[in-house]
């Protein structure tokens, strides 16, 4: 069939301009795989891992310190000490200030790793988020206050927020709004980052429970809430909380990311899987791949410069014969955590950093 020249121009322009245009590379991408498994060892437990893409550092909380690695080589770069019971890290790339989710919070210079000050906070610091619009750090806690907010420029406490439940992970739309998944209420709380007020609460409609990972496509206003029970990614409109769809994920999710360059969301699970969800359009999503990682690799972080995902895990000895029985099935996030805690001690020097890429 002959198509008029003017119509051919329109078709070509629309194909080029659409970010969701179907191409051979997008329809059949090279699969993700573990490209590096660096057994770096070291003592101490661990929780969230954080990649500072601008500063090219990888921060790994290890109990009473934060181990720092060069992001491109995974060679040791130093450590942040005196971070009691540290869980996570946030970095302000503009001021070059880093912050630990610990008691107290430690603030440091990300170029020299020298401590600038310590900041006393209440509650039990766990997750942590930096919002670039307000240059504020949100330190999350399962008990009140649910969020302590710090000015990233000088380390002063701006205020606290009652989120109405226990937050697990937070994300920013970089336009003045931050969102938190509330693990014990099966909701996502929308917050005005400047006013420090909850503006909305989005329910998950029974599609997923115990949300423990949260990611955002800020450009298209899409939230991804990754849940324990049912094990699902509940995908919502960030403006009004409307549920778009839900998709299956693995067992034991504890972190998530979204890559605006590839239009993919990632969730890392304790069962040794990394679920990759592709956004075909702001209303169409599919599970693109399930990457086999390593058991226990339940937290992850994304390097936006290389499109690589970093995960952390270790090996554990079998539980003692007299260990408490696992929690009954169907108890959501709490039951999943109790079952995982039944494992034996960590095998010495088995701590490993995994790098997933194409």
Characterization of the model:
With 358 residues, the chain is mainly β. It folds into 2 domains: 30-40 and 164-184 and 204-316 and 337-358, 7 Propeller (Methylamine Dehydrogenase, Chain H), CATH 2.130.10.10; 47-162, YVTN repeat-like/Quinoprotein amine dehydrogenase (Methylamine Dehydrogenase, Chain H, 7 Propeller). Helices cover 8% and strands 48% of the residues. It contains 3 helices and 28 strands. The chain has helices at residues 5-17, 24-27, 332-341; strands spanning 33-39, 50-52, 57-61, 63-70, 76-86, 89-92, 97-100, 105-109, 115-119, 125-131, 136-141, 147-151, 157-161, 167-172, 177-182, 187-192, 197-203, 211-217, 222-227, 232-237, 243-248, 253-259, 264-269, 273-281, 284-292, 299-303, 308-313, 352-357. The strands form 7 sheets. It has a 4-stranded antiparallel β-sheet, with no helix packed on it. β19 (222-227) and β20 form a beta hairpin. The model is unreliable at 5-18 and 328-333 (pLDDT under 50).
List the SSEs and their pairings.
Layout: H1 5-17, H2 24-27, E1 33-39, E2 50-52, E3 57-61, E4 63-70, E5 76-86, E6 89-92, E7 97-100, E8 105-109, E9 115-119, E10 125-131, E11 136-141, E12 147-151, E13 157-161, E14 167-172, E15 177-182, E16 187-192, E17 197-203, E18 211-217, E19 222-227, E20 232-237, E21 243-248, E22 253-259, E23 264-269, E24 273-281, E25 284-292, E26 299-303, E27 308-313, H3 332-341, E28 352-357
Antiparallel strand pairs: 1-28, 2-3, 3-4, 4-5, 6-7, 7-8, 8-9, 10-11, 11-12, 12-13, 14-15, 15-16, 16-17, 18-19, 19-20, 20-21, 22-23, 23-24, 24-25, 26-27, 27-28
């Amino acid at each position: 069939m002959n198509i008029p020249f003017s119509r051919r121009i329109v078709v070509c322009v629309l194909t080029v301009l659409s970010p969701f245009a179907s191409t051979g590379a997008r329809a059949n991408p090279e699969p993700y795989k573990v490209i590096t498994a660096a057994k770096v060892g070291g003592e101490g437990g661990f929780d969230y891992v954080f990649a500072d893409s601008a500063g090219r550092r990888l921060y790994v909380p290890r109990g009473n310190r934060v181990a720092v690695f060069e992001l491109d080589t995974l060679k040791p770069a130093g450590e942040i000490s005196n971070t009691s019971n540290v869980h996570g890290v946030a970095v302000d790339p503009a001021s070059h200030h880093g912050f630990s989710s610990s008691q107290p919070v430690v603030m440091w210079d990300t170029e020299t790793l020298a401590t600038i000050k310590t900041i006393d906070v209440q509650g039990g610091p766990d997750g942590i988020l930096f919002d670039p619009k307000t240059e504020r750090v949100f330190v999350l806690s399962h008990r009140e206050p649910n969020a302590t907010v710090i000015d990233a420029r000088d380390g002063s406490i701006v205020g606290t927020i009652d989120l109405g439940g226990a937050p697990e992970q937070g994300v920013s739309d970089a336009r003045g709004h931050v969102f938190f998944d509330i693990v014990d209420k099966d909701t996502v709380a929308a917050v005005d980052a400047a006013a420090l007020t909850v503006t909305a609460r989005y329910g998950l409609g029974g599609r997923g429970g115990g949300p423990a990972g949260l990611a955002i496509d800020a450009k298209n206003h899409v939230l991804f809430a990754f849940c324990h029970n049912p094990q699902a990614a509940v995908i919502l409109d960030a403006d009004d909380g409307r549920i778009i769809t839900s998709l299956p994920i693995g067992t034991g999710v504890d972190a998530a990311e979204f890559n605006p360059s590839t239009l993919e969301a990632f969730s890392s699970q304790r069962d040794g899987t990394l679920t990759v969800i592709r956004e075909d359009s702001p209303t169409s999503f599919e599970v693109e791949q399930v990457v086999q990682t390593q058991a226990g690799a339940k937290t992850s972080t994304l390097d936006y410069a290389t499109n690589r995902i970093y995960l952390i895990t270790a090996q554990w000895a079998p539980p003692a014969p007299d260990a408490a029985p696992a929690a009954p099935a169907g108890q959501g996030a709490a039951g999943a955590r109790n079952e995982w805690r039944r494992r034996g001690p960590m095998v010495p020097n088995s701590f490993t950093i995994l790098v997933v890429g194409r």
